[in-house]
Amino acid sequence: xxxxxxxGSIVGSKTxxxxxxxxxxxxxxxxxxxxxxxxxxxxxxxxxxxxxxxxYDGDTKYVTETIMSADAIVIGTPTFQASIPATLxxxxxxxxVNAFRDxxxxxxxxAGTSKHYLMIEQQLxxxxxxxxxxxxxxxxxxxxxxxxxxxxxNDDVLFRLERLAEDTVMVADAFAEIRAKKDAExxx
Length: 188
Fold this sequence. Notes:
- The structure is a single chain.
- The chain is α/β, with parallel strands linked by helices.
- The protein has a single domain (2-184), classed as Rossmann fold.
- Helices cover 42% and strands 20% of the residues.
- It is built from 5 helices and 8 strands.
- It has helices spanning 14-29, 58-68, 86-94, 118-130, 155-184, and strands at 2-7, 34-39, 72-78, 104-111, 134-135, 140-143, 147-148, 151-152.
- The strands form 2 sheets. Strands 1, 2, 3, 4, 5 and 6 form a 6-stranded parallel β-sheet that branches.
- Helix 3 (86-94) links the parallel strand 3 (72-78) and strand 4 (104-111).
- Helix 1 (14-29) packs across helix 5 (155-184).
- The radius of gyration is 16 Å and the shape is globular.
- The relative contact order is 0.18.
- The model has no long low-confidence stretch (mean pLDDT 96).
C-alpha cells in the first residue's frame, strides 16, 4: 500500500513536526507499506490554472502524481485565519474532483487555540467528501501548547497520532478488501 503524508503549509514547524511523527509511526509499525512525506515547503508549486494535474511539470507534477497514486493520504494542516492555508487549497484545486475516490484520507490539524477545531468539520471534511475520499472519522487536533522546541510534549497527542496511523491503515485495508470482492464479481 502507498501512503502519502502531506504537510500542507510552507511556513511554520508544528504541522511538519506532527506529520513527521505520523510518518515515523507508520514506518515503524507498517514497514511493508511505502510511506512518502510530501512537505509543501520543499517544493515549488505552481498555482492551479485549470489544467489537468498531469499537464503540469516539475514539482507540481511530482506532488500531484504522488498524491494520485496513493492508496491512503494523511493530510497535515495548520489553521490560518480559521481556515486551511492557501497552499493546501491549491493542492485540492490542482487535483480532479474525484481525486480521492477509493482513497482513505485522515487528518492532523494544528492550531493556536482550541477554538479552531470546527474548521475541520466545516471546511476540510466537506472538501474531502466532495472529492470522494473515504474519510477516517477521527482526526488529531493539536494545539500550540502541545509543542515545545519543535517536539510534541503531550503524551496524549502522541497516543492519538499512533491511533490515527493505525486507523488509517486499517480503514485502507478494509476498503481494499471491499474493492477486491467487488472486482471479483466481474468475469472479465
